[in-house]
Amino acid sequence: MTLVPRYLPRNMSLAELPQESRFFPVEPQTQLQGFCHWQDDRTASPTTVLVHGLEGCSESRYMRGIAAKAYRAGFNVIRLNQRTCGGTEHLSPTLYNSGLSGDYRAILDELAHRDGLTHIWLIGYSMGGNLVLKASGELGKTNPALAGVAAVCPNINPTLCARALEEPRNWIYHRHFLTKLKSRLRRKAALSPGKWDLSPLDQIATISEFDDRYTAHDGGYRDGADYYDRAGARHVLDAIAVPTLIITAQDDPFIPYSMFTLPNIQQHPFIRVIAPRYGGHCGFFHRGRNGEDPHWAENRIVDFLLKRL
Predict the structure, then answer these.
(1) Which of 12, 8, 296 lies closest to 153, judged by CA?
(2) Of 243, 245, 255, which Cα lies nearest the Cα of 282?
(3) How far apart are CA 245 and CA 69, in angstroms?
(4) pLDDT above 90: residue 6
(5) How confident is the model at residue 1 (pLDDT cuts 50, 70, 90)?
(6) Alpha-carbon gap, residue 7 to 63, rounded angstroms
(7) Which residues are CB-contacts of 16 (< 8 A; sequence separation ≥ 6)?
């Protein structure tokens, strides 16, 4: 479920969608690049803001898949790159991390006040799911332009997720993420010579070591444990005040399902959790019914959006 959907043939072209590249300032010297697909009357149309997961980008298959479906359903769509992702290392002096929900609050504010958009949904996958849930909880009822949130396999408790990712059975995913993180840091360091000491990089064998040595300190955290604890959306879920959909799988290899069975989530008045037995990590490749394609989670997100209009 986790791997197969990434390799099966699929038409990922967005050529029929209008596209505009845009840079969103979120902090001094920091911008996020987004690719905007506007409806003919953007202010009269609802908007989806898409946030990818760890080592993904605006071009990830799931980002293009949900973008096409949301646009066809009548939504403006903005595919964002997190800091340093999608070839944007030069747009920020910092690395990206799971706690940077302020970036998405800033983008939401810009879209509401500069563009006059009034119905904006935040949609995130994995790490991006944690970020949009965290942003929503931090906002509470303060930004009326936020219409709702959808999160697929969000790592709302990074401590548990990192521990699961480093289990021997998950070596293929762990090696993939760690290798890509190291490569990104080397590219980043080439733009800012002397900022990061890369001498221990080759000896780092786990993501938790990488985050303890680099991500945490770069993000202003005391250490890796402090980063994992404070970056999790779990701390602010109770404050979410907009319709929220969480899709996760009970067999996700490194997003433990137990995180979503707690009473404050299951009994939350604004949060609905859909957790099929199978789905892997952001895979959810199911046999299509009633004319649907097999990308089940994308179809459920669009259903959720349309029902809330």
Answers:
(1) 296
(2) 255
(3) 17
(4) no
(5) confident
(6) 15
(7) none
Instruction: Give the C-alpha separation, 31 to 8, whole Å.
Output: 34
Computed from CA positions of residues 301, 307, 308, 309, in that sequence, does the dihedral angle turn out positive or negative? positive
Contact 251, 278 (CB under 8 A): yes
d(CA 271, CA 82): 25
Which pair of structure tokens corresponds to residue 103?
A: 């970036």
For residue 11, the model assigns a pLDDT of: 86
Q: How far apart are CA 158 and CA 164, in angstroms?
A: 10
Model confidence, pTM: 0.97
Q: From CA 102, how far away is CA 262, in angstroms rounded?
A: 26
In this structure, are residues 104 and 135 in contact, taking their beta carbons and an 8 Å threshold?
Answer: yes
The single residue listed with the structure tokens 């069975």 is: 261
What stretch of H or E contains 226?
A: helix 224-231
CA distance 44 to 116: 9
Radius of gyration of the chain from Cα atoms? Answer: 18
Strand pairing report for 244-247 and 271-274? parallel
Q: Which residue has the tokens 């202010």?
A: 43
- 148 residue type, one letter: G
Dist CA 99 CA 219 (whole Å): 8
User: Is residue 203 within 8 Å of 174, Cβ to Cβ?
Assistant: no
149 sits in which H/E element = strand 146-152
pLDDT band at 87 (very low <50, low <70, confident <90, very high): very high
pLDDT category of residue 149 using cuts at 50, 70 and 90:
very high
d(CA 116, CA 114): 6
Rounded to the nearest 5 degrees, what angle is found at the Cα of 234, between the Cα atoms of 233 and 235?
90
CA 21 to chain centre: 19
CA–CA gap between residue 35 and residue 82 (Å, rounded): 12
With 90 as the cut, is the pLDDT of residue 288 above it?
no
Question: What does the angle CA 172 – CA 260 – CA 158 come to, to the nearest 5 degrees?
Answer: 50
List the CATH code of the domain at 4-159+233-308. 3.40.50.1820
